[in-house]
Amino acid sequence: MNRAVRRVPASQFPRLLGDWRVGEGPLAKRLAVAVEKAIHDGRLPLGVQLPAERLLAGELGLARGTVAACYHILRAEQLIITRTGSGSTTSLPPRLHDRLSPWASDRGQAGRSGAVLDLTIAEPAAPFDELLQAVHAAADALPAALLHDTADGDGPSALRAVIAGAYCAQGLATRGEHLLLTSGADAALNLLSAAYLRQSSRVVLDSPTYPGALATFRTAGARLVAQPLSSTGWDIPALDRTLRAARPSLTYLIPDFHNPTGLLMSEDERSELRHRLRAHDTVVVFDETMRDLDLREHACPPPRAVTRAGDRNVVHVGSLSKSLWPGLRVGWIRAHPDVIHRLAALPLAAALAPSPFDRLVATRLVDRLEAVLDRRRAQLRAQRDHLASRLSALPWCRFRTPQGGLSLWLELLDTDSSRLAALAATRNLSLTPGFHFSPDGALDRYLRLPFTLPPETLDAAVDRLTEAHAALEGAH
């Protein structure tokens, strides 16, 4: 599909920019700020050609030199690209293309001037360039997909084949019939809840664990049974005793770079878990959404917790939300074909399926997955180490440096996280207290601190956290 360069007529700029003259400073600077804001919030799309300096100056009632100075500022900030004979087109600077944290976390201010810092978000921003390329390729494939009514553009099983191939490459034989696509991991958990849980059904979970899973199982009316994690990992004999006592309908575990602790289940623990699960009649759901976020020096896929062929009680849930972007609503359930057939027959399955266009985008984006992950792992590793270095100097908390994931699990030694979070909020720092990750409302001595933000923003966050802790005495 041929994409001609789009142009924004000079006549549209008064409406696009609004009352841009209000404020202080030279007109050229005020105009440049207004154009930057219009690019950031989408009023001016990326890749569109701006009017010639003379035309825009005439429309806005400015001297041509003022518009030329504005364009010079925008070029210096890499918000426009000017090519001889082609004019100036809108763009974003590389520092925004390569953001690992969502724009909403700090509005691009990196903690400067008291800007609000949101550390309640533990998710990556979109891989900007790769995602745009995948969207354009998906748009090209969409007409054929609509004409032929194919879900993935290249045939009804294209995305399943890619996902199945990844499982096979990691030692778990998988075909398309083992997979059900969902609109994310939360959708997968909702579908599993509908299939296996009834009012007052028991669910055994790690404590702490993913808050989205807690919300899903509570909504289903389940009774949650917490299995505490130690600072070093899973106590498999204790989990075995809990399973014998609770006899749960479903057991939910995150063995790979656990959310929120970043813990990785060892091979010995996995081997013992395989052995002990044989004695229990419970559906075991392994949440693998963090699996790709391996921050060890030599990243490699961890072994899967259970790989016995033909097991109808083992379900793997995956998603692209943490490795690529939460806005791409594509996840999956990997299970025995009989289980997949049962889930697909539920009325809820159609409502929780990903959209055809999301599948088109995902099919094309996974081809670039390893390149994106290599870059992101390096960024996350550096930011994790930076945050750990700052926190290690604080005598009132402790933590273990996580082997993967997106966050650090901080234990407070002299206060509770609710009080500290409330004081941090008065300093424009938003935090998530530990009880949000608890099946039974405990863990108020803990905070989850994501390290998805750039180092300078993490510095600002630690400074504000330190100030909030220092204010505790005055709050007594």
Structural features, described:
The protein is α/β, with parallel strands linked by helices and 476 residues long. The chain is built from 18 helices and 15 strands. It has helices at residues 13-17, 27-40, 53-60, 64-76, 94-97, 128-148, 158-169, 185-196, 211-219, 236-246, 267-277, 337-344, 348-351, 356-365, 369-391, 417-425, 455-470, 472-475; strands at 80-83, 87-90, 117-118, 179-182, 202-207, 223-228, 250-253, 283-287, 314-319, 331-334, 397-398, 407-412, 429-430, 432-433, 446-450. The protein is globular, with a radius of gyration of 25 Å. The chain starts with 12 loop residues before the first helix and ends with a helix. The model has no long low-confidence stretch (mean pLDDT 90).
Name some characteristics of this structure:
about 475 residues; alpha/beta; 4-stranded antiparallel β-sheet; about 40% helix; globular
Helix-strand blueprint:
Elements: H1 13-17, H2 27-40, H3 53-60, H4 64-76, E1 80-83, E2 87-90, H5 94-97, E3 117-118, H6 128-148, H7 158-169, E4 179-182, H8 185-196, E5 202-207, H9 211-219, E6 223-228, H10 236-246, E7 250-253, H11 267-277, E8 283-287, E9 314-319, E10 331-334, H12 337-344, H13 348-351, H14 356-365, H15 369-391, E11 397-398, E12 407-412, H16 417-425, E13 429-430, E14 432-433, E15 446-450, H17 455-470, H18 472-475
Parallel strand pairs: 3-13, 5-6, 5-7, 7-8, 8-9
Antiparallel strand pairs: 1-2, 4-10, 9-10, 11-12, 12-15, 14-15
Helix pairs in contact: 2-4, 3-4, 6-14, 8-9, 15-17, 16-17
